[in-house]
Known about the structure:
The chain has helices at 31-126, 134-174, 188-209. The chain has 214 residues and is an all-alpha fold.
Amino acid sequence: MRDDLKKPGPKPVMAPEAPIPPRPDVTNVPSDLASVELSEHRTNLSTHRTHLSEHRTDLSDYRTDLSIQRTDMSQDRTELSMRRTGMSFQRTRLSADRTLMSVIRTSLSLISFGFTIFQVFQKLHESNVITNAAAPRNFGVVLVGLGILMLVIGIIYHLQFMVGLREERHAMAEEGLVHAESRFPPSFTLVTAVVLLFIGVASIVSMLFNVGPF
């Protein structure tokens, strides 16, 4: 809450209930004196109405101050809500990065485990330790291919999700629902996933065609 909120003054004390001045009885009073008494009575009534009007004015000013304070507090709540919504977009983006990291860990395990199985049985076959290593080598190729496929699907899903999130954030910013002042930096997790994808493709090409860095 801001410190510059206008605070209402003290609530006006309720005016004491003053009786209405009684109307003078001028039945048997001479006309000139009756006129004076009636004039004084009208003055007293006017003074009574003035006091009531001043009290109503004080109450109205107090209600106006309360209304201004409520308006300021409502603006503060709206501002806080907008900032919370903006932060929720950042949390959602980080959650998408964590999801992609989970895909990277699983894909890395499949690729490394499959490549290791392939290389072990390939070396054993080349050393004439075993005569047939086709089945375990095929199993290693399948594991590497599964890791690559899983990584490709994870990258595509991440890109689609982030594009949709950015578009929704931009639309809400145009409607004035969020400030959208904080930027969405490039995802380092996505860069890592793409690099791992290239490594996985190079691995499976090396396994199938015996070419490449591996």
